[in-house]
């Protein structure tokens, strides 16, 4: 794992917001005197009443409060306070699914008017401060209006990714007791349409608390509107005022509920609050991405996930940034789409997930190299461990070797980046998340809770609270305490495995649940998968353990080949030898199955728990599969398992 190091680029060391020295000074203050550090950072925001109590947190018993006597409004901080200086500046470039469909440009003034109207419509529909509002919307501008409208009037949004089924939607509506759903006639993704309104109609018989559905017209599809319940957004918007007062919110009032990706089990409805969350992610956006005034920032994450909440919406707007928002997918109409969008809007910072990077790498370099990408200054990744091979490709082919990469480790529960390089301060190591963000105190422990110092590998905990930390799981505080604070008393347990190298840099090795134990040797999934992905013919790989008579656990690998490469027994043999040579005999795969696709969550993460079941020939009990993106992938893998070798 300790491969190459790319030292900080000289120009970045000199010009970036955060230099090595500045990082060290700020980090030291953030952990030694968090009250002073975060009191200062809170000044990034406009407060109706400035906080005087900064940090009031404990992990045993669990009680987390930041800025608890502060009063602010998140929508005001994201829109109104910028209007004087930036009213006519672009807030969003909105890019449609297909390049021939009309794009939109939305200025801060326009954003203000539309959010106010949306807020007034919600009020007319009876939504009040503290009410939960479920959003089931595609990546169209109206989803940003809806989220910010909730923030404006103090309602709590719960965005459900617009690819989820009616059952999954109903479950999430019921879980947070919302009485209103905002949706669209249809969504578009990769040339396909998704019948969102129809899905809502199918969900509501199982979610009886909902009495209002607000519908955005997007594709113009023929849908049925139910009298007394369903309301067209454009009709309602025409009849309301274009100004809406902001609702003063306590810093600890909830801003949103968001369900985790469901990689390891039933999704958790994580609750984030207003003041700490916005302070933290605003700082992260400026420092980790080195955002400078006038830059064009593009986070490709869907607003259905935390990366979208924090870095497609709230953090860039809090900093008065210009952002890109894209409706579609990376490979439609073809695998050049991302890079063409970057050229079209002269994007300076681009942030996406390893799953997209691996897929585009598998499509071949030509799709990238035929575009310019000259505007790019920095690249980012989040969501899964990035395999060094994919990192190098992102760095050399996409970034032409000029752009630092920030590999940001974080979780829905953490609100913002927790372990991440700073481009002017941190030497980059492909595959390493490297160094803690301000205020973050990582610690590695073994399974018995013993603290591991120095160079070590273990379970990643965080010792103290940071402002963007989730406060609870909606309606189930006990689950919150049990999931995160009980395994290692007094510490936040991330459920991720992690290695600290001799330089003190952190490498996420995968989920603790996925760790392999082969003849007594513990191995993270990331290491074996990265070895496979580093083979020229492999585009993706997933590794799980299965019961093995002699070794305790055997290594079962699923391999997706590069586009156009044929699978064969010889290739399987080569790949085994390859892993053996790259890591050592102990890591030699016992069973190998070629997989045209891997089961992933809808946010693009590999679901190893399902692969483990297939490896064990136990198909009856696959667990919660409602978050699976494409169930047919699982059937193919089950059918193909006879061909493993
Ligand atoms: P669930 O909690 O429901 O099982 P999930 O953990 O996939 O789902 P998210 O909050 O979307 O839900 O994902 C957080 C996880 O993603 C982290 O715990 C980690 O395993 C992984 N992750 C995110 N960013 C990185 C990164 N840069 N490097 C390695 N792993 C990452
Ligand atoms: Mg998780």
UniProtKB/TrEMBL annotation:
Residue stretches spanning the membrane: none
Residues that coordinate or bind Mg(2+): 533, 535, 538
Positions with a binding annotation for ATP: 383-385, 407-412, 496, 511, 522
SUPFAM superfamilies, per the entry: Acetyl-CoA synthetase-like (SSF56801)
PTM entry text: Acetylated. Deacetylation by the SIR2-homolog deacetylase activates the enzyme.
Domain AMP-dependent synthetase/ligase as annotated: residue spans: 80-462
Protein origin, superkingdom: Bacteria
EC number(s) given by UniProt: 6.2.1.1
Listed Pfam families: ACAS_N, AMP-binding, AMP-binding_C
Catalytic reaction list: acetate + ATP + CoA = acetyl-CoA + AMP + diphosphate
CDD domains per the UniProt record, alphabetical: ACS
Keywords annotated in UniProt: Acetylation, ATP-binding, Ligase, Magnesium, Metal-binding, Nucleotide-binding
InterPro entries: Ac_CoA_lig (IPR011904), ACAS_N (IPR032387), AMP-bd_C (IPR025110), AMP-bd_C_sf (IPR045851), AMP-binding_CS (IPR020845), AMP-dep_synth/lig_dom (IPR000873), ANL_N_sf (IPR042099)
Cofactor(s) demanded: Mg(2+)
Binding-site positions, CoA: 189-192, 307, 331, 519, 580
Location of the AMP-binding enzyme C-terminal domain: 527-605
GO molecular function: acetate-CoA ligase activity
Domain (Acetyl-coenzyme A synthetase N-terminal): residue spans on this chain: 23-78
Sequence positions bearing N6-acetyllysine: 605
Database matches in NCBIfam families: Ac_CoA_lig_AcsA, PRK00174.1
Similarity comment: family membership: Belongs to the ATP-dependent AMP-binding enzyme family.
Function: Catalyzes the conversion of acetate into acetyl-CoA (AcCoA), an essential intermediate at the junction of anabolic and catabolic pathways. AcsA undergoes a two-step reaction. In the first half reaction, AcsA combines acetate with ATP to form acetyl-adenylate (AcAMP) intermediate. In the second half reaction, it can then transfer the acetyl group from AcAMP to the sulfhydryl group of CoA, forming the product AcCoA.
Record protein name field: Acetyl-coenzyme A synthetase
Source organism of this protein record: Maritalea mediterranea
